[in-house]
Structure formats: C-alpha cells, structure tokens
UniProtKB/TrEMBL annotation:
InterPro entries: Kinase-like_dom_sf (IPR011009), Plant_MAPKKK (IPR052751), Prot_kinase_dom (IPR000719), Protein_kinase_ATP_BS (IPR017441), Ser/Thr_kinase_AS (IPR008271). This is Protein kinase domain-containing protein. It comes from Solanum bulbocastanum. GO terms for molecular function: ATP binding; protein serine/threonine kinase activity. The keyword Lipid biosynthesis does not apply. Gene3D superfamilies: Transferase(Phosphotransferase) domain 1 (1.10.510.10).
Length: 336
C-alpha cells in the first residue's frame, strides 16, 4: 500500500506515531513506526490489535514494511482520532471534567476493557493519554504494553512488566503480576485524573519513590470527596489494593454510576473552570515506561532498586496535529 507520511504526532509505548494519508483514497490515518530490526514489541502490538474489533477500541487498518532513508521500517496503521486524547480534553475543560461527562467516558472505557478482558487480553497501560476521542466517544489505544493473560497464548514465556508508574497497580509495582485487575486500577486512577486534573498520587517527587509508595505503603489514591456517593463507591471498587477484591469490568458495567451514564457527550461537555492541573503533570512519573527484560526484575535483591530499574526508561506521549507540516511519500518495500 502506497501512502504519504506526515509529521510525528506523538510517541506510543514502543514507537513513534505519525499522521498518514493514502495516496489512492486520500484517507487519513495514524501510523506507528519503528525500525524493522527493533520492531518486536510493535509486531506484538500489531498481532493483538489485528484480532480486535470494537467501537471502544481504536480501529486496526493494517501493517506493512517500508524503506525510508535506507532503513526498513515496520508500520502499524490505525484509525486517526481527530479530537486528541482524554488528557487533552481535561485541559480543554479547564483542568477538570464534570461528573456526567466522567461517567460517559468511563462507561465507554469499561466497555472496551470488558471486550479486551473477555478475549484474554490485558491492556496494561490505561490512562488518559491512551484514551483517544472522536465524535463517537472514547476509544482505548496504544497496545504497546498489552499482553495475553493466558500463559498458553504467550510467546517466549513470562511477560515483562511495563506501563506508566502513576497508574500502576500495587501488584504491578511490586513486580508480581500484571493482568486484567491492573487495568481496573488504572481506570480508577484515570477517573481521578478526569475529576481533579491532577495526579492520583500526591506529594511524590520521583518515579522510584512513587512506585515504592504504591507497592508497599498500604495506601490507595485519595477519592475526591466532591464526587457523588455513587461515583465514590465506583472508585472504591476499582482501587482496592488486593487485586482479587477489585470488581471486574463486567461487574462495573452494572454499577449504578454507569447505569445512569447513558448520556450524549455534547449535552455534558460543559466547561468546568477550576484550578489548572498540578505541576506533577510535567514530571517523569506520568510518562510511559518501556517494557523491560523480565530478568532484571528477578536479579535485583532490593525492592527499591527493582522499582528504580522499572522506572528508569520513560517516554512522553503527545498526540498533536499540524496541517502545515510537510508530507513525505512512502512506498511499500516490496515495490522498491
């Protein structure tokens, strides 16, 4: 497939993301690319995304290998979501989103999670930056950290731990396990992000101290008191430290907070002017951590050192669009 690459619009957990346009149809889509020799994670993401079809998951468009500047590139093509990320929406709303709109987006994310989990897939990096918006609502995106939770579906044995420190569940921060319950914890943290415009954890200054707090303090993120009783109860079901006690996505869909969220997004999309997000938004603890070799987590003896190693690599996700940028023609390598 011949297509035209636009400028970089962001970085996912495993590769750069660019705008792209079909030379034949003119269709605009997003393409996630990395050098073929370094594309193991992106090929795994492609395999997962190609098996998914849901109105709550970003659509898969295909993949190819191209030759650009004498380098072979592996490209994953996806639906382009014009309205940016949920984190962008929080900023547009003045730093907070009102509760009806929180319920609207949350229900769509939970529907997406229920679909994923029913197919034995854990996303492993649920956060506002990985929820993309369009006129039809919220779509889960960036499957760079995702995994099959059934050991029979795994390639090459145990999966490495990955994700974003600020949204990690306690069992993940301890390096014990990362499955579907961890997505529910990340959902709870994302709701707090929507409600407050700030971080689910406060008074932390580094990724290592944050992960240590998540793993061993016995605390959970503080649930905003200004939310309704139903919203607070919903969060309580998501943010239970024991992963076995957290509600599943299927259970959460029956919670009263979501049962009343059959709202039209335009009717709830009202400005909620409050204080701007906290400065912690700009710190590394909000950024995505590349998946690591699992042997690293097994070899270190100190829990704190393990957490420091886990948080050593981070990248920033920032989806942006600029029509003035130059397009570059790209051709499939088999045409070269």
């Amino acid at each position: 497939m011949d297509w035209i690459r636009g400028h970089t619009i962001g970085h996912g957990s495993s590769a750069a993301v660019s705008a792209a346009k079909s030379r034949l149809s003119g269709e605009v889509f997003a393409v996630k690319s990395v050098e073929l020799s370094k594309s193991q994670l992106l090929q795994k993401e492609q395999k997962i995304l190609s098996e998914l079809s849901s109105p709550y998951i970003v659509s898969y468009k295909g993949y190819d290998v191209t030759k650009e500047k004498d380098k072979l590139m592996f490209n994953l093509m996806m639906e382009y979501m014009p309205d940016g990320t949920l984190s962008d929406e929080i900023r547009k709303q003045g730093g907070r989103i009102n509760e009806p709109l929180i319920g609207y987006y949350t229900k769509q994310v939970v529907q997406g999670l229920e679909y994923l989990h029913s197919r034995g897939i854990a996303h492993c990096d649920i956060k506002g930056q990985n929820i993309l918006l369009s006129k039809t609502g919220a779509n889960i995106a960036d499957f760079g950290c995702s995994r099959w939770v059934d050991p029979a579906d795994r390639d090459g044995g145990a999966e490495p731990i990955g994700g974003t420190p600020m949204f990690m569940a306690p069992e993940v921060a301890r390096g014990e396990e990362q499955g579907c319950p961890a997505d529910i914890w990340g959902l709870g943290c994302t709701i707090i992000e929507m409600a407050t415009g700030g971080s689910p954890w406060t008074n932390v200054t580094s990724a290592s101290s944050l992960l240590y707090k998540i793993a061993f303090s016995g605390q959970s993120p503080e649930i905003p008191k200004f939310l309704s009783l139903q919203a607070r109860d919903f969060l309580n079901k998501c943010l239970r430290r024991d992963s076995k006690e957290r509600w599943t996505a299927k259970q959460l869909l029956k919670h009263p907070f979501l049962e009343e969220s059959n709202l039209n997004s335009t009717s709830t999309n009202q400005n909620f002017v409050t204080s701007s997000p906290t400065s912690i938004l700009d710190q590394d603890i909000w950024n995505s951590v590349e998946t690591m070799d699992s042997t690293i987590l097994q070899e270190v003896s100190s829990p704190l050192q393990r957490l420091r190693d886990l948080s050593s690599n981070s990248g920033e996700l920032n989806w942006r669009w600029n029509d003035d940028q130059m397009w570059i023609t790209v051709r499939s390598s088999n045409n070269e």
